[in-house]
Amino acid sequence: MNRRLLYFSFLVLTGRLYGATVTEADICVFGGNSAGIVAAVQAQRLGKTVVLVEPGTHVGGLTTGGLGATDIGNKAAIGGLSREFYHRIALHYSQAAAWAQEDRNEYFTRRSSSQAQAADLVSTNATMWTFEPRVAAQVYHAMLTEARIATYLQQRLAAVEKRGARITEIRMENGNVFRASMFIDASYEGDLMARAGAAYRVGREGNAQYGETLDGIRARTPSHQFLVPVDPYVKPGNPGSGLLPFCQSGEGGPAGEGDQRVQAYNYRLCFTTVAENRLSVAPPPNYNPADYELLARYLEALAKAGQTLKLSAFWNPIWLPNRKTDINNNGPFSTDFIGMNWAYPEADYSTRSRIAKEHENYTRGLLTFLATSPRVPETLREEMRRWGPCQDEFADNGGWSPQIYVREARRMVSDYVMTENNCRGTALAEDSIGLAAYNMDSHNCQRIVKDGHAENEGDVQVPPMKPYPISYRAIVPKATECANLLVPVCLSATHIAYGSIRMEPVFMVLGQSAATAAALAIDRRVGVQQLDYAALRARLLAERQVLDWPPARRALATNAEVSEPIASSGSLPQADRPQLRAR
Fold first, then answer.
1. Which stretches within 437-503 are classed as H helix?
2. 59: CATH
3. How far apart are CA 423 and CA 468, in angstroms?
4. Digit-coded pLDDT (tens) for 62-118
Protein backbone atom coordinates (compact mmCIF):
# COMPACT_ATOMS: atom_id res chain seq x y z
CA MET A 1 0.00 0.00 0.00
CA ASN A 2 2.82 2.40 0.89
CA ARG A 3 4.59 1.61 -2.40
CA ARG A 4 1.36 2.35 -4.29
CA LEU A 5 1.04 5.73 -2.57
CA LEU A 6 4.67 6.54 -3.32
CA TYR A 7 4.19 5.63 -6.99
CA PHE A 8 1.00 7.73 -7.15
CA SER A 9 2.94 10.70 -5.72
CA PHE A 10 5.72 10.13 -8.26
CA LEU A 11 3.23 10.21 -11.13
CA VAL A 12 1.73 13.48 -9.91
CA LEU A 13 5.13 15.12 -9.41
CA THR A 14 6.40 14.08 -12.83
CA GLY A 15 3.26 15.29 -14.57
CA ARG A 16 2.19 11.92 -15.93
CA LEU A 17 -1.23 11.62 -14.31
CA TYR A 18 -4.58 12.92 -15.58
CA GLY A 19 -3.05 14.28 -18.78
CA ALA A 20 -0.38 16.37 -17.05
CA THR A 21 2.69 16.97 -19.22
CA VAL A 22 6.33 17.93 -19.04
CA THR A 23 7.03 20.64 -21.62
CA GLU A 24 10.47 21.95 -22.55
CA ALA A 25 11.38 25.12 -24.40
CA ASP A 26 14.19 27.60 -24.68
CA ILE A 27 12.08 30.27 -22.99
CA CYS A 28 9.07 29.90 -20.69
CA VAL A 29 6.87 32.97 -20.30
CA PHE A 30 4.68 32.95 -17.20
CA GLY A 31 1.75 35.33 -17.51
CA GLY A 32 -0.38 35.69 -20.64
CA ASN A 33 -1.09 39.41 -20.42
CA SER A 34 0.16 41.95 -22.99
CA ALA A 35 3.76 41.77 -21.78
CA GLY A 36 3.69 37.98 -21.84
CA ILE A 37 2.20 37.74 -25.32
CA VAL A 38 4.71 40.19 -26.77
CA ALA A 39 7.57 38.41 -25.00
CA ALA A 40 6.48 35.06 -26.42
CA VAL A 41 6.09 36.41 -29.96
CA GLN A 42 9.47 38.15 -29.80
CA ALA A 43 11.19 34.99 -28.55
CA GLN A 44 9.73 33.01 -31.45
CA ARG A 45 10.76 35.65 -33.98
CA LEU A 46 14.31 35.36 -32.65
CA GLY A 47 14.26 31.66 -33.41
CA LYS A 48 13.72 30.34 -29.89
CA THR A 49 11.25 27.73 -28.80
CA VAL A 50 8.80 29.26 -26.37
CA VAL A 51 5.84 28.32 -24.22
CA LEU A 52 3.29 30.77 -22.78
CA VAL A 53 1.81 29.79 -19.41
CA GLU A 54 -1.21 31.67 -18.02
CA PRO A 55 -2.79 31.02 -14.60
CA GLY A 56 -6.19 32.40 -15.64
CA THR A 57 -8.77 31.64 -18.30
CA HIS A 58 -7.96 34.30 -20.90
CA VAL A 59 -4.97 36.03 -22.45
CA GLY A 60 -4.31 39.70 -23.00
CA GLY A 61 -4.71 40.86 -19.41
CA LEU A 62 -6.13 44.35 -19.12
CA THR A 63 -5.70 45.13 -22.81
CA THR A 64 -8.32 42.51 -23.66
CA GLY A 65 -10.06 42.99 -20.30
CA GLY A 66 -11.62 46.41 -20.74
CA LEU A 67 -8.75 48.90 -20.75
CA GLY A 68 -9.47 49.94 -24.33
CA ALA A 69 -8.53 53.61 -23.85
CA THR A 70 -4.76 53.31 -23.80
CA ASP A 71 -2.90 55.27 -21.14
CA ILE A 72 0.63 56.23 -22.10
CA GLY A 73 1.35 59.96 -22.32
CA ASN A 74 3.69 60.57 -25.26
CA LYS A 75 2.91 57.88 -27.82
CA ALA A 76 6.09 58.57 -29.78
CA ALA A 77 7.93 56.86 -26.92
CA ILE A 78 6.43 53.50 -27.94
CA GLY A 79 8.08 51.34 -30.58
CA GLY A 80 8.69 47.74 -31.54
CA LEU A 81 6.04 45.06 -31.17
CA SER A 82 4.03 47.29 -28.87
CA ARG A 83 3.58 49.75 -31.71
CA GLU A 84 2.86 46.90 -34.09
CA PHE A 85 -0.10 45.93 -31.91
CA TYR A 86 -1.61 49.42 -32.18
CA HIS A 87 -0.89 49.41 -35.91
CA ARG A 88 -2.87 46.20 -36.24
CA ILE A 89 -5.70 47.79 -34.27
CA ALA A 90 -5.73 50.65 -36.80
CA LEU A 91 -5.81 48.21 -39.70
CA HIS A 92 -8.84 46.50 -38.19
CA TYR A 93 -10.76 49.75 -37.84
CA SER A 94 -9.81 50.86 -41.34
CA GLN A 95 -12.34 48.29 -42.59
CA ALA A 96 -15.95 49.33 -42.98
CA ALA A 97 -17.04 45.96 -41.59
CA ALA A 98 -15.47 46.86 -38.22
CA TRP A 99 -18.11 49.54 -37.62
CA ALA A 100 -21.51 48.22 -36.54
CA GLN A 101 -23.01 50.95 -34.33
CA GLU A 102 -21.43 53.96 -36.07
CA ASP A 103 -18.99 54.76 -38.84
CA ARG A 104 -15.41 55.93 -38.44
CA ASN A 105 -16.13 59.60 -38.99
CA GLU A 106 -18.91 59.60 -36.39
CA TYR A 107 -16.59 58.01 -33.86
CA PHE A 108 -13.68 60.38 -34.38
CA THR A 109 -15.99 63.37 -34.41
CA ARG A 110 -17.47 62.26 -31.10
CA ARG A 111 -13.93 62.06 -29.72
CA SER A 112 -13.27 65.61 -30.99
CA SER A 113 -10.87 64.32 -33.59
CA SER A 114 -10.61 65.40 -37.18
CA GLN A 115 -11.73 63.40 -40.17
CA ALA A 116 -8.08 63.33 -41.25
CA GLN A 117 -7.27 61.24 -38.21
CA ALA A 118 -10.01 58.82 -39.14
CA ALA A 119 -8.67 58.58 -42.67
CA ASP A 120 -5.17 57.94 -41.30
CA LEU A 121 -6.27 54.45 -40.28
CA VAL A 122 -5.49 53.29 -43.80
CA SER A 123 -1.93 54.64 -43.97
CA THR A 124 1.08 52.37 -43.61
CA ASN A 125 2.14 54.15 -40.44
CA ALA A 126 -1.25 54.38 -38.73
CA THR A 127 -1.79 53.53 -35.09
CA MET A 128 -5.01 53.54 -33.09
CA TRP A 129 -5.03 53.62 -29.31
CA THR A 130 -8.72 53.09 -28.47
CA PHE A 131 -10.38 49.78 -29.24
CA GLU A 132 -13.00 47.24 -28.18
CA PRO A 133 -11.77 44.43 -25.88
CA ARG A 134 -12.86 41.75 -28.36
CA VAL A 135 -10.81 43.42 -31.12
CA ALA A 136 -7.71 43.43 -28.92
CA ALA A 137 -8.34 39.74 -28.29
CA GLN A 138 -8.60 39.09 -32.04
CA VAL A 139 -5.32 40.89 -32.71
CA TYR A 140 -3.49 38.98 -30.00
CA HIS A 141 -4.99 35.70 -31.19
CA ALA A 142 -3.66 36.44 -34.66
CA MET A 143 -0.19 37.25 -33.35
CA LEU A 144 -0.04 34.07 -31.26
CA THR A 145 -1.37 31.97 -34.13
CA GLU A 146 1.10 33.39 -36.65
CA ALA A 147 3.96 32.68 -34.25
CA ARG A 148 2.58 29.23 -33.42
CA ILE A 149 2.93 29.90 -29.69
CA ALA A 150 2.00 26.97 -27.47
CA THR A 151 -0.30 28.56 -24.89
CA TYR A 152 -1.46 26.86 -21.71
CA LEU A 153 -4.36 28.35 -19.73
CA GLN A 154 -5.41 27.71 -16.12
CA GLN A 155 -1.85 26.91 -15.06
CA ARG A 156 -1.60 27.92 -11.42
CA LEU A 157 1.96 28.00 -10.14
CA ALA A 158 2.69 25.54 -7.34
CA ALA A 159 6.47 25.32 -7.08
CA VAL A 160 9.74 26.53 -8.58
CA GLU A 161 12.73 24.19 -8.76
CA LYS A 162 16.24 25.66 -8.87
CA ARG A 163 19.78 24.40 -9.22
CA GLY A 164 21.98 26.99 -7.60
CA ALA A 165 20.91 30.39 -8.91
CA ARG A 166 19.09 29.00 -11.96
CA ILE A 167 15.48 27.93 -12.31
CA THR A 168 15.27 24.46 -13.81
CA GLU A 169 11.50 23.99 -13.92
CA ILE A 170 8.21 25.34 -12.67
CA ARG A 171 5.40 23.06 -11.52
CA MET A 172 1.69 23.80 -11.71
CA GLU A 173 -1.08 22.80 -9.32
CA ASN A 174 -2.44 20.43 -11.99
CA GLY A 175 0.89 18.60 -12.20
CA ASN A 176 2.12 20.15 -15.45
CA VAL A 177 5.84 20.90 -15.51
CA PHE A 178 7.57 23.50 -17.69
CA ARG A 179 11.33 23.42 -18.19
CA ALA A 180 13.36 26.07 -19.94
CA SER A 181 16.76 27.72 -20.20
CA MET A 182 15.23 31.12 -19.48
CA PHE A 183 12.08 32.21 -17.66
CA ILE A 184 10.14 35.46 -17.95
CA ASP A 185 7.68 36.40 -15.21
CA ALA A 186 5.21 38.66 -17.02
CA SER A 187 2.43 38.27 -14.45
CA TYR A 188 0.83 41.27 -12.77
CA GLU A 189 1.45 39.67 -9.36
CA GLY A 190 5.07 38.50 -9.64
CA ASP A 191 4.38 34.97 -8.40
CA LEU A 192 7.25 33.32 -10.28
CA MET A 193 9.65 36.05 -9.22
CA ALA A 194 8.68 35.60 -5.56
CA ARG A 195 8.89 31.80 -5.59
CA ALA A 196 12.26 31.99 -7.36
CA GLY A 197 13.68 33.87 -4.37
CA ALA A 198 14.01 37.37 -5.82
CA ALA A 199 13.72 40.22 -3.33
CA TYR A 200 10.57 42.28 -3.63
CA ARG A 201 8.37 44.79 -1.85
CA VAL A 202 4.63 45.37 -1.43
CA GLY A 203 3.27 48.81 -0.57
CA ARG A 204 4.80 52.27 -0.41
CA GLU A 205 8.37 53.21 0.44
CA GLY A 206 8.98 56.07 2.81
CA ASN A 207 10.04 59.23 0.99
CA ALA A 208 13.39 59.29 2.75
CA GLN A 209 14.48 55.85 1.50
CA TYR A 210 15.21 56.95 -2.07
CA GLY A 211 15.08 60.73 -1.73
CA GLU A 212 11.51 61.06 -3.05
CA THR A 213 8.61 63.39 -2.28
CA LEU A 214 5.54 61.55 -3.62
CA ASP A 215 5.99 57.95 -2.48
CA GLY A 216 4.84 57.52 1.09
CA ILE A 217 1.65 58.33 2.99
CA ARG A 218 0.23 61.62 1.77
CA ALA A 219 -0.23 64.61 4.04
CA ARG A 220 -2.93 65.90 1.66
CA THR A 221 -4.84 64.15 -1.09
CA PRO A 222 -6.71 66.79 -3.11
CA SER A 223 -7.76 64.65 -6.09
CA HIS A 224 -10.63 62.14 -6.03
CA GLN A 225 -11.54 63.53 -2.65
CA PHE A 226 -14.83 64.27 -0.89
CA LEU A 227 -15.88 67.80 -1.88
CA VAL A 228 -18.06 68.29 1.18
CA PRO A 229 -17.74 66.83 4.71
CA VAL A 230 -19.37 63.41 5.18
CA ASP A 231 -19.84 61.74 8.56
CA PRO A 232 -18.40 58.18 8.44
CA TYR A 233 -19.98 56.79 11.61
CA VAL A 234 -22.94 54.41 11.74
CA LYS A 235 -24.62 56.87 14.08
CA PRO A 236 -23.61 60.33 12.89
CA GLY A 237 -21.29 62.05 15.35
CA ASN A 238 -20.83 58.90 17.45
CA PRO A 239 -17.41 57.20 16.94
CA GLY A 240 -18.46 54.47 19.34
CA SER A 241 -21.13 53.30 16.90
CA GLY A 242 -18.47 52.10 14.48
CA LEU A 243 -17.58 52.99 10.90
CA LEU A 244 -19.80 52.70 7.86
CA PRO A 245 -18.88 50.06 5.25
CA PHE A 246 -15.90 50.82 2.99
CA CYS A 247 -14.06 52.96 5.59
CA GLN A 248 -10.85 51.99 7.38
CA SER A 249 -10.05 52.82 10.98
CA GLY A 250 -7.31 55.19 12.05
CA GLU A 251 -5.95 58.40 10.59
CA GLY A 252 -3.70 56.86 7.94
CA GLY A 253 -0.24 57.14 9.46
CA PRO A 254 2.51 59.78 9.53
CA ALA A 255 2.96 61.72 6.28
CA GLY A 256 5.88 60.57 4.16
CA GLU A 257 6.32 57.20 5.86
CA GLY A 258 6.10 53.88 4.07
CA ASP A 259 3.42 51.24 4.59
CA GLN A 260 2.12 47.97 3.19
CA ARG A 261 -0.99 49.47 1.60
CA VAL A 262 -1.64 49.04 -2.10
CA GLN A 263 -3.38 51.49 -4.40
CA ALA A 264 -6.99 50.59 -5.18
CA TYR A 265 -8.06 48.08 -7.82
CA ASN A 266 -11.23 48.14 -9.89
CA TYR A 267 -12.78 46.73 -13.04
CA ARG A 268 -12.66 48.72 -16.26
CA LEU A 269 -16.25 48.71 -17.52
CA CYS A 270 -16.97 48.17 -21.20
CA PHE A 271 -20.53 49.57 -21.16
CA THR A 272 -22.88 50.98 -23.78
CA THR A 273 -26.06 53.01 -24.05
CA VAL A 274 -27.13 51.24 -27.28
CA ALA A 275 -30.26 49.37 -26.23
CA GLU A 276 -29.92 46.46 -28.65
CA ASN A 277 -26.40 45.71 -27.42
CA ARG A 278 -26.94 46.49 -23.74
CA LEU A 279 -27.28 44.05 -20.87
CA SER A 280 -28.81 45.05 -17.57
CA VAL A 281 -26.55 45.42 -14.55
CA ALA A 282 -27.34 42.48 -12.31
CA PRO A 283 -27.18 43.32 -8.60
CA PRO A 284 -24.75 41.22 -6.57
CA PRO A 285 -25.96 38.36 -4.37
CA ASN A 286 -27.32 39.63 -1.07
CA TYR A 287 -27.29 43.23 -2.31
CA ASN A 288 -27.91 45.61 0.60
CA PRO A 289 -28.36 49.31 -0.21
CA ALA A 290 -27.34 50.12 3.38
CA ASP A 291 -23.79 49.19 2.43
CA TYR A 292 -23.71 52.41 0.38
CA GLU A 293 -24.77 54.71 3.21
CA LEU A 294 -21.56 56.75 2.89
CA LEU A 295 -22.38 57.43 -0.76
CA ALA A 296 -25.98 58.31 0.12
CA ARG A 297 -24.79 60.84 2.68
CA TYR A 298 -22.32 62.29 0.18
CA LEU A 299 -25.06 62.72 -2.44
CA GLU A 300 -27.30 64.41 0.09
CA ALA A 301 -24.49 66.71 1.23
CA LEU A 302 -23.70 67.68 -2.37
CA ALA A 303 -27.35 68.44 -3.07
CA LYS A 304 -27.58 70.53 0.11
CA ALA A 305 -24.50 72.47 -1.04
CA GLY A 306 -26.27 73.28 -4.31
CA GLN A 307 -24.26 70.92 -6.52
CA THR A 308 -25.83 69.63 -9.75
CA LEU A 309 -25.39 65.87 -9.67
CA LYS A 310 -24.20 64.20 -12.87
CA LEU A 311 -23.07 60.62 -13.37
CA SER A 312 -19.73 61.88 -14.69
CA ALA A 313 -18.85 62.89 -11.11
CA PHE A 314 -18.87 59.21 -10.11
CA TRP A 315 -17.15 57.52 -13.05
CA ASN A 316 -15.12 58.44 -16.13
CA PRO A 317 -16.38 57.00 -19.44
CA ILE A 318 -13.99 57.19 -22.41
CA TRP A 319 -15.56 56.38 -25.75
CA LEU A 320 -14.40 53.35 -27.69
CA PRO A 321 -15.54 52.40 -31.20
CA ASN A 322 -19.11 51.21 -31.76
CA ARG A 323 -20.53 53.33 -28.92
CA LYS A 324 -18.78 51.39 -26.19
CA THR A 325 -16.77 52.76 -23.30
CA ASP A 326 -13.80 52.14 -21.11
CA ILE A 327 -15.13 53.42 -17.77
CA ASN A 328 -12.66 54.15 -14.99
CA ASN A 329 -12.85 55.48 -11.46
CA ASN A 330 -13.67 59.14 -10.88
CA GLY A 331 -14.35 61.08 -7.70
CA PRO A 332 -14.24 60.06 -4.04
CA PHE A 333 -16.73 57.18 -4.20
CA SER A 334 -16.56 55.29 -7.47
CA THR A 335 -15.46 52.00 -9.02
CA ASP A 336 -12.20 51.86 -7.01
CA PHE A 337 -12.77 49.54 -4.05
CA ILE A 338 -10.47 51.52 -1.78
CA GLY A 339 -8.58 49.62 0.89
CA MET A 340 -10.07 46.23 0.06
CA ASN A 341 -7.14 44.80 -1.94
CA TRP A 342 -4.28 44.96 0.54
CA ALA A 343 -4.09 41.18 0.92
CA TYR A 344 -4.20 40.49 -2.82
CA PRO A 345 -0.49 40.68 -3.81
CA GLU A 346 0.66 37.94 -1.42
CA ALA A 347 -2.55 35.88 -1.43
CA ASP A 348 -3.02 32.38 -2.83
CA TYR A 349 -5.16 31.84 -5.92
CA SER A 350 -8.30 31.04 -3.98
CA THR A 351 -8.04 34.19 -1.87
CA ARG A 352 -7.34 36.31 -4.95
CA SER A 353 -10.44 34.91 -6.63
CA ARG A 354 -12.48 35.84 -3.56
CA ILE A 355 -11.05 39.37 -3.51
CA ALA A 356 -11.74 39.80 -7.23
CA LYS A 357 -15.34 38.65 -6.72
CA GLU A 358 -15.73 41.08 -3.83
CA HIS A 359 -14.58 43.87 -6.15
CA GLU A 360 -17.10 42.80 -8.77
CA ASN A 361 -19.92 42.61 -6.20
CA TYR A 362 -18.98 46.02 -4.83
CA THR A 363 -19.12 47.53 -8.32
CA ARG A 364 -22.42 45.84 -9.21
CA GLY A 365 -23.85 47.07 -5.91
CA LEU A 366 -22.62 50.60 -6.56
CA LEU A 367 -24.25 50.71 -10.00
CA THR A 368 -27.45 49.14 -8.69
CA PHE A 369 -27.59 51.72 -5.91
CA LEU A 370 -27.11 54.61 -8.34
CA ALA A 371 -29.85 53.24 -10.60
CA THR A 372 -32.47 52.33 -7.98
CA SER A 373 -32.03 53.95 -4.57
CA PRO A 374 -34.62 56.61 -3.67
CA ARG A 375 -31.79 58.47 -1.96
CA VAL A 376 -30.25 59.09 -5.38
CA PRO A 377 -31.82 62.01 -7.31
CA GLU A 378 -34.15 60.75 -10.04
CA THR A 379 -32.19 62.50 -12.78
CA LEU A 380 -29.08 60.62 -11.72
CA ARG A 381 -30.95 57.32 -11.46
CA GLU A 382 -32.40 57.78 -14.93
CA GLU A 383 -28.94 58.55 -16.33
CA MET A 384 -27.51 55.42 -14.73
CA ARG A 385 -30.28 53.21 -16.12
CA ARG A 386 -29.26 54.10 -19.67
CA TRP A 387 -25.99 52.21 -19.22
CA GLY A 388 -25.17 48.50 -19.15
CA PRO A 389 -22.53 45.92 -20.12
CA CYS A 390 -22.07 45.19 -23.82
CA GLN A 391 -23.76 42.03 -24.99
CA ASP A 392 -20.97 41.29 -27.49
CA GLU A 393 -18.11 41.64 -24.97
CA PHE A 394 -17.02 39.00 -22.45
CA ALA A 395 -19.88 36.78 -23.57
CA ASP A 396 -18.51 33.84 -21.57
CA ASN A 397 -18.62 35.93 -18.39
CA GLY A 398 -22.01 37.63 -18.59
CA GLY A 399 -20.61 40.81 -20.13
CA TRP A 400 -18.24 41.36 -17.21
CA SER A 401 -14.47 41.49 -17.63
CA PRO A 402 -12.60 38.47 -16.26
CA GLN A 403 -9.59 40.69 -15.45
CA ILE A 404 -9.49 42.74 -12.28
CA TYR A 405 -7.27 45.82 -12.65
CA VAL A 406 -4.22 44.90 -10.60
CA ARG A 407 -2.64 48.34 -10.63
CA GLU A 408 0.25 47.23 -8.46
CA ALA A 409 1.21 44.12 -6.54
CA ARG A 410 4.73 42.92 -5.78
CA ARG A 411 7.64 44.99 -7.06
CA MET A 412 11.09 43.47 -7.37
CA VAL A 413 14.07 45.04 -5.57
CA SER A 414 17.12 44.57 -7.77
CA ASP A 415 20.49 46.26 -8.23
CA TYR A 416 18.75 49.23 -9.86
CA VAL A 417 15.52 50.67 -8.47
CA MET A 418 13.55 53.09 -10.66
CA THR A 419 12.48 56.07 -8.53
CA GLU A 420 10.74 59.42 -8.68
CA ASN A 421 14.14 60.86 -9.62
CA ASN A 422 14.09 58.87 -12.87
CA CYS A 423 10.62 60.17 -13.61
CA ARG A 424 11.71 63.76 -13.04
CA GLY A 425 14.88 63.36 -15.11
CA THR A 426 17.27 64.00 -12.21
CA ALA A 427 18.49 60.39 -12.42
CA LEU A 428 19.18 58.69 -15.75
CA ALA A 429 19.35 54.96 -16.45
CA GLU A 430 22.14 54.48 -18.97
CA ASP A 431 21.12 50.94 -19.91
CA SER A 432 17.74 51.78 -21.43
CA ILE A 433 15.45 49.01 -22.67
CA GLY A 434 12.44 51.25 -23.32
CA LEU A 435 10.81 54.49 -22.27
CA ALA A 436 8.05 55.36 -19.81
CA ALA A 437 6.00 58.49 -20.45
CA TYR A 438 3.01 58.70 -18.12
CA ASN A 439 2.17 60.83 -15.07
CA MET A 440 3.47 59.92 -11.69
CA ASP A 441 0.14 58.41 -10.71
CA SER A 442 -1.38 56.56 -7.81
CA HIS A 443 -4.99 55.84 -6.98
CA ASN A 444 -6.12 56.13 -3.37
CA CYS A 445 -4.77 53.56 -0.93
CA GLN A 446 -7.15 53.97 2.00
CA ARG A 447 -10.31 55.73 3.20
CA ILE A 448 -9.72 57.06 6.68
CA VAL A 449 -11.32 59.41 9.22
CA LYS A 450 -9.93 62.89 9.86
CA ASP A 451 -11.61 65.49 12.04
CA GLY A 452 -14.74 63.34 12.15
CA HIS A 453 -15.09 63.16 8.34
CA ALA A 454 -14.35 60.53 5.70
CA GLU A 455 -11.20 61.25 3.71
CA ASN A 456 -9.43 59.34 0.94
CA GLU A 457 -5.64 59.05 1.10
CA GLY A 458 -2.98 58.17 -1.43
CA ASP A 459 -4.03 59.64 -4.77
CA VAL A 460 -1.20 61.32 -6.71
CA GLN A 461 -1.63 63.07 -10.05
CA VAL A 462 1.56 64.79 -11.23
CA PRO A 463 1.42 66.04 -14.84
CA PRO A 464 3.42 64.31 -17.58
CA MET A 465 7.18 64.58 -17.67
CA LYS A 466 9.20 63.96 -20.80
CA PRO A 467 9.75 60.27 -21.60
CA TYR A 468 12.57 58.69 -19.61
CA PRO A 469 14.55 55.43 -19.93
CA ILE A 470 13.90 52.28 -17.92
CA SER A 471 17.01 50.41 -16.80
CA TYR A 472 17.74 46.86 -17.96
CA ARG A 473 18.93 46.16 -14.41
CA ALA A 474 15.39 46.93 -13.18
CA ILE A 475 13.98 43.82 -14.90
CA VAL A 476 16.62 41.33 -13.72
CA PRO A 477 17.03 40.08 -10.13
CA LYS A 478 20.30 40.27 -8.29
CA ALA A 479 22.76 37.70 -9.68
CA THR A 480 22.88 35.81 -6.38
CA GLU A 481 19.10 35.35 -6.45
CA CYS A 482 18.38 34.11 -9.98
CA ALA A 483 20.48 34.07 -13.14
CA ASN A 484 17.87 33.05 -15.71
CA LEU A 485 14.80 35.13 -14.84
CA LEU A 486 13.53 38.43 -16.27
CA VAL A 487 10.65 40.43 -14.74
CA PRO A 488 9.19 43.02 -17.16
CA VAL A 489 5.96 43.77 -15.23
CA CYS A 490 6.72 43.55 -11.50
CA LEU A 491 10.01 45.31 -12.16
CA SER A 492 12.27 47.03 -9.65
CA ALA A 493 10.66 50.41 -8.97
CA THR A 494 9.32 52.39 -6.06
CA HIS A 495 5.58 52.80 -5.64
CA ILE A 496 5.48 56.23 -7.27
CA ALA A 497 7.85 55.37 -10.14
CA TYR A 498 5.88 52.21 -10.80
CA GLY A 499 2.75 54.38 -11.02
CA SER A 500 4.31 56.11 -14.02
CA ILE A 501 5.77 53.00 -15.66
CA ARG A 502 2.78 50.62 -15.23
CA MET A 503 1.06 51.26 -18.57
CA GLU A 504 0.13 48.43 -20.92
CA PRO A 505 2.16 49.73 -23.93
CA VAL A 506 5.23 50.02 -21.69
CA PHE A 507 4.69 46.50 -20.35
CA MET A 508 4.67 45.34 -23.99
CA VAL A 509 7.92 47.21 -24.64
CA LEU A 510 9.53 45.64 -21.57
CA GLY A 511 8.20 42.21 -22.53
CA GLN A 512 9.88 42.46 -25.93
CA SER A 513 13.13 43.66 -24.35
CA ALA A 514 13.03 40.85 -21.79
CA ALA A 515 12.58 38.21 -24.50
CA THR A 516 15.41 39.71 -26.54
CA ALA A 517 17.69 39.63 -23.53
CA ALA A 518 16.69 36.04 -22.78
CA ALA A 519 17.48 34.94 -26.35
CA LEU A 520 20.86 36.69 -26.35
CA ALA A 521 21.73 35.22 -22.95
CA ILE A 522 20.96 31.74 -24.28
CA ASP A 523 23.12 32.30 -27.36
CA ARG A 524 26.02 33.61 -25.27
CA ARG A 525 25.53 31.08 -22.46
CA VAL A 526 25.55 33.72 -19.75
CA GLY A 527 23.27 34.74 -16.94
CA VAL A 528 20.97 37.65 -17.61
CA GLN A 529 23.05 39.88 -15.31
CA GLN A 530 26.21 39.19 -17.36
CA LEU A 531 24.64 40.00 -20.72
CA ASP A 532 26.56 42.66 -22.66
CA TYR A 533 24.28 45.71 -22.77
CA ALA A 534 25.80 47.03 -25.99
CA ALA A 535 24.74 43.86 -27.79
CA LEU A 536 21.25 44.04 -26.28
CA ARG A 537 20.89 47.70 -27.21
CA ALA A 538 21.92 47.08 -30.80
CA ARG A 539 19.37 44.29 -31.13
CA LEU A 540 16.58 46.35 -29.57
CA LEU A 541 17.25 49.25 -31.92
CA ALA A 542 17.14 46.82 -34.83
CA GLU A 543 13.74 45.72 -33.54
CA ARG A 544 12.54 49.36 -33.64
CA GLN A 545 12.42 49.88 -29.92
CA VAL A 546 12.66 53.52 -28.80
CA LEU A 547 15.40 53.72 -26.16
CA ASP A 548 16.31 57.41 -25.92
CA TRP A 549 14.52 60.75 -25.70
CA PRO A 550 14.48 62.55 -27.97
CA PRO A 551 14.86 59.56 -30.29
CA ALA A 552 17.88 59.47 -32.54
CA ARG A 553 17.23 60.35 -36.17
CA ARG A 554 17.81 56.76 -37.24
CA ALA A 555 15.29 55.48 -34.69
CA LEU A 556 12.75 58.03 -35.86
CA ALA A 557 13.17 56.90 -39.44
CA THR A 558 11.98 53.42 -38.56
CA ASN A 559 9.26 54.40 -36.11
CA ALA A 560 5.75 53.42 -37.07
CA GLU A 561 4.19 56.87 -37.22
CA VAL A 562 7.05 58.45 -39.18
CA SER A 563 7.79 56.71 -42.44
CA GLU A 564 8.32 53.00 -42.51
CA PRO A 565 5.46 50.48 -42.31
CA ILE A 566 5.48 47.73 -39.74
CA ALA A 567 5.35 44.21 -41.11
CA SER A 568 2.23 42.38 -40.06
CA SER A 569 4.32 39.40 -39.03
CA GLY A 570 8.02 38.93 -38.55
CA SER A 571 7.70 35.24 -37.82
CA LEU A 572 10.04 32.67 -39.28
CA PRO A 573 9.00 30.69 -42.36
CA GLN A 574 7.22 27.50 -41.43
CA ALA A 575 10.14 25.27 -42.35
CA ASP A 576 12.49 27.25 -40.10
CA ARG A 577 10.30 27.25 -37.02
CA PRO A 578 11.75 25.17 -34.19
CA GLN A 579 9.15 22.89 -32.66
CA LEU A 580 8.36 22.63 -28.98
CA ARG A 581 9.47 19.46 -27.31
CA ALA A 582 6.91 17.87 -25.01
CA ARG A 583 6.54 14.51 -23.37
1. 495-501
2. 3.50.50.60
3. 6
4. 999 999 999 888 999 999 999 999 999 999 999 999 999 999 989 998 887 555 556
